[in-house]
Batch of 2 targets.
Target 1
Amino acid sequence: MALQIGIIGTGWFSKVHADILSNMDGVQVAAFVGTSQEKAARAVQGYASAKAYSNTEQMLDETKPDAVYICVPPFAHGEIESQLVQRGIPFLVEKPLGTNLATPRQILHGVKKAGLMTSAGYHFRYTDAAMKAAEMLESRKIGMALGYWMGDMPQVYWWRQQEGSGGQFIEQTTHMVDLLRCLLGEVDEVYAAFAHRAMKDIHEGVTVHDVGTATLKLRSGAVATISNTCMLPESDKVGLTIYTEQGVIDIQPDKLIVKEKGRLTEIRNAANPYLRENEAFIHGLRTGDASGILSTYEDAVKTMEVTDAALRSAESGVPVKVGE
Ligand SMILES: NC(=O)c1ccc[n+]([C@@H]2O[C@H](COP(=O)([O-])OP(=O)(O)OC[C@H]3O[C@@H](n4cnc5c(N)ncnc54)[C@H](O)[C@@H]3O)[C@@H](O)[C@H]2O)c1
């Protein structure tokens, strides 16, 4: 019998995952849950086996999925995960885990107690660029890193509201913070400055900062800065550049650029990181072997601790210790 997957959320990213899942052998997209029956009914179109629901509990009762994908905006996390924990249903959750730390910490407690298999949508970890960088860094001394997410403002309504998304650093730049943790290790302290420059005057209802920069002290002794803006008319640079005694390793969304010994080498990503992320989770469900899952709920909480510390530092004007 095919693995039955329930999907919560009917937006852009639910469809990205549903398309990948429905092309896998032995996997069936069993249901979509939307905020209304109409939205769910629209979402199931094109997925022959999927049923539409407007209520998570009802979907879980009737579909009895083997696992659930949670693809909802940051503000909508908490209740969904609690239900899955109570029923012992493994889940893949899109980043970030929430708009603040309180809910994820509570959910993590339940996830650990239930021994649930989880995966968090930090797909950069699954890119060829990040995997090759990890290999190279084993034989280099890391000095520092510069991360950046310089872009435009996503147009979904919740993104521009602080209580909807948590702001750019928590919602989007979290990918770079996670990549930093994955490749350079844990962060001990953050000092950040965020500001409102232009977007408040351009769009209605904008409460998120539109520029920000954070200085991070790592446990290893290395240092980093991660900056972001969402005030550009179109997307610019996104990536993490790592400086070692042998040269520069630059991870971009689609490639790795290495500058060492006077030579520049460019390696383009060949594999689809989202496919790898999904395959690792599905393999885990089938076999119980979760070793291919590169980011779990527990690990993602640690990334959220850093992005949350950055927001608290920007609000208070003083450095903040991570995890306190
Ligand atoms: N990993 C990545 O590369 C990546 C890319 C895009 C989005 N995402 C993440 O995926 C999440 C969703 O993003 P999106 O672009 O699909 O947003 P979206 O606004 O297009 O879709 C979100 C959907 O969730 C639904 N929803 C809200 N509350 C719900 C609830 N309680 N129950 C059921 N459905 C609910 C909304 O109605 C909407 O259909 C975000 O956290 C985002 O950061 C990750």
Note: The chain has a mean pLDDT of 98.
Target 2
Amino acid sequence: MFDTVAIVGATGAVGQIIIELLEERNFEAKKFRFLASARSAGKTISFKGEEIVVEELTKDAFAGTDLVIASTPDDIAAEYLPSAIEAGAKVIDESGYWRMNDDVALVIPEINPQDALNAQGIISSPNCSTTQMVVAMKPLHDISPIRRVIVSTYQATSGAGVQGDEDLVQGSKARLENRDYEYKVFQHPIAFNAIPQIGSEKYEGYTSEEMKMVYETRKILGDDSIQINPTCVRIPVWNCHSESITVETESPISPDQAREAFAAFPGIQVLDNLSESVYPMPSNCDGSNDVFVGRIRKDISHPNGLSFWCVSDNLRKGAATNAVQIAELLAEQ
Ligand SMILES: NC(=O)c1ccc[n+]([C@@H]2O[C@H](COP(=O)([O-])OP(=O)(O)OC[C@H]3O[C@@H](n4cnc5c(N)ncnc54)[C@H](OP(=O)(O)O)[C@@H]3O)[C@@H](O)[C@H]2O)c1
């Protein structure tokens, strides 16, 4: 058990779910501290029947803390988390800043728990679009190695944090009322639209969000030879990312084999009955900690191809749930 646990970014979209999960899963510690920016310092958050006052994040804030779970923008993670390591804390980070650093473990507990247990420094939780895809890939990869993935994402506005949701709600209202609205986080109106850019231009016409799916998948599965071609799209859905995934494996995997392997894998639920219109959607996956798959079918364009649809709550398994599962692993250790 940890003595003192600090949640950094406690007021954010991910931070709020981390706090909810720590309470719901009865994560034990003598003391919990909630930190955020100076804007939030002094606010209170209810937790296990207590009102905890939010503290301002500073480099000195980590003294006496033995576990930090952080979900802040990248630049804040870059600036402050080394101080937490220096103060002797175990650190789990949701941001994208540290993930690909050689000294940092990138962990999905169902896949590479040992990397968290062996970690000497920061433990990163992968990007939300990566996590659900890799969880779904793993049971197939175990049957026959995946050689290539073509994936298109349909990503919710909550993936852009509290302000992303605000843009969806206020932008939609303004559009229905024929008013202008100045978007804060999206480059184009998200209301009644689809934006084929998440992140900045990164490599050969692919965005930073797309390249995260390439690099992070290879790191988590420990296989740099997997070829991945992602297209990431923001859509006007409040929560839960959806992904259309086609994998090419070394030898063919039938839809029935895949269905069975998905169902047996921890944290995956299969919703797959096209004739009854049963499949995962943001509306039936929101609020769950699992990864959902459906529309499982043969890729009719390739003998070793398999296609499926994958939905998961980006704030939960894509972020908060994964981090809390890592914290639980460390606590057991
Ligand atoms: N949203 C997702 O689905 C998702 C999934 C996976 C990973 N992530 C990653 O998780 C991180 C947090 O995302 P989010 O969606 O929760 O964002 P968010 O809703 O914008 O929350 C950001 C949090 O960081 C805090 N923060 C911002 N500037 C700070 C500063 N100068 N000092 C201290 N704290 C500061 C904010 O505090 P204030 O409220 O005081 O501003 C807030 O608590 C990001 O790196 C994101 O890429 C997000």
Note: The chain has two domains: 2-127+319-332, 130-314.
